[in-house]
Amino acid sequence: MPLDAAEVERRLSDPARLARAAAQRVESQGTPAAVLVPVVLHPRPTLLLTLRAARLSSHAGQVAFPGGRIEPGENPEQAALREAAEEVGLDPRLPRILGRLPEHLTGTGYHVTPVLALLEPPLNLVNAPDEVEQAFEYDLAPLLDPALPERRSAIWKGERRHFFVWPHAEHYVWGATAAIMQSLADLLREG
């Protein structure tokens, strides 16, 4: 049964849940990065995701949360808000930051801190064409399905890698984005 916006907000705003999620740390010397995990509080809540531009040198054409490297002097929240403003024109005053999800180390050497936030619709987004091909919303309902996400594997650089894939009619949602969505799903499913 899908959750309505009020129930999603209640579950995600619970300080005890957020503290347990944020306590999961990754020890890494990877490049520090942050992503904004924006939950849009429609009557049927969604996640704001992006399809990265096909011409990018890394992660081209992949589904991602708005985000990127943490610049010197920034904390993860500042970096996530700055990157969301740069990539999709999201006004940094609009997201209501709730806390952090578990950190994630990518296969490409980034140490990512996911910053969880709530957004009230409507959104007036303007994609940066050099970075984002499309911004789109992903229904939260699949995150509540205990049979999801699908677990897949592939050989990458001579080594078998395992990863999550979340269903979507148009886009392949996998990798770090899917792993962060799994963390959000765990938070929503808890209790």
UniProtKB/TrEMBL annotation:
UniProt keyword annotation of Aminoacyl-tRNA synthetase present: no
GO terms for MF: coenzyme A diphosphatase activity; metal ion binding
Membrane keyword on record: no
Cofactor(s) named in the record: Mn(2+); Mg(2+)
UniProt keyword annotations, A-Z: Hydrolase, Magnesium, Manganese, Metal-binding
Annotated ranges, domain Nudix hydrolase: 30-159
UniProt-listed SUPFAM superfamilies: Nudix
NCBIfam families (alphabetical): PRK10707.1
Family designation: Belongs to the Nudix hydrolase family.
Name under which the protein is recorded: Coenzyme A pyrophosphatase
Organism listed in the record: Teichococcus deserti
